[in-house]
Amino acid sequence: MDEEVYKKYKLAGSIAAKARDYGANLVKAGKTLLEVAEKVEKKIEELGGKPAFPVNISINDVAAHFTPRKKDSTKFQPGDVVKIDVGVHIDGYIADTATTVEVETDRYGELINASREALENAIKAIKAGIRLRELGKIISETIKKRGYRAIDNLSGHNLQRYLLHAGLSIPNVPEFSLTKLDADEVIAVEPFATDGAGHVISGKESNIYRLVKFPPKSRDKTRIYAGKLRKLYSTLPFAERWLEGKFTNPHNLLEDLVRKGYVISYSQLIEKGRGMVSQHEHTVIVTEEGCEVIT
Ligand code: CO
What we know:
By secondary structure, the protein is an alpha+beta fold. The chain folds into 2 domains: 3-202 and 269-293, Creatinase/methionine aminopeptidase superfamily (Creatine Amidinohydrolase, Alpha-Beta Complex), CATH 3.90.230.10; 203-268, Orthogonal Bundle (Arc Repressor Mutant, subunit A). It has 6 helices and 15 strands. A hairpin with a 4-residue loop joins strand 14 and strand 15. Helix 1 packs antiparallel against helix 2 and helix 3 runs antiparallel to helix 4. The chain starts with a helix and ends with a strand. The protein binds cobalt (II) ion. Cobalt (II) ion (CO) is lined by residues 96, 157, 188, 190, 281. Cobalt (II) ion is lined by residues 96, 157, 188, 190, 281.
């Protein structure tokens, strides 16, 4: 890997790790999700990075894809199982990492350990030449041993410059694939464990958006707005609340761009059996002998 690129990944990784741990420590009963999300995003900027996506704070049976809106007053409750998923980029080079905390109670410690251990075991096995199927097997078997299920339709992914999901899926179950990992590949591994069905379905909106297409030249403002979004976030996901102060009516603007197909709005991913979900994630650089965890 190019030395400059490597340095950027390492810096993104160290900032993401600090922001993740900082966020996990902020999660307390009575605090709002919004406060935690905004503080973590501010921390990322203070440390010299940029958020690669809005901080995801997904609670209980919401496995992933939720960030609070500016007006959201939802507070953490005792017993909540909270996933904090953080992305940081330096010049487009992304590190993606997540952890899970339970608020005040300790009923889901074993569930949380299951995804943590699955991630550890996968990392021990990663090296150039390993088949993705093998990683999926390690992850799902580790989780199964603790009495839980891996979520079969959520997966890790490879990362490329300004691309959070660059095409390769790192499965959490041994699905049929002959694909092998190559040295220098940057991948995010993210096992999800649940006491539910082991599958997620789409739920309500996540408040997370992404520019997916660029409008043709026209007289209306659409192209100007899309251009501004592209300049701000490139092809990376963003939150509606990030647009406040930058656009006059962000909500209407986004509705319009989504309707026209230039922006997509992500849905929350909900556990199908309404089970509790825990998640752990690290970004690693694959090497010939193993891998380097950068988060
Ligand atoms: Co990820």
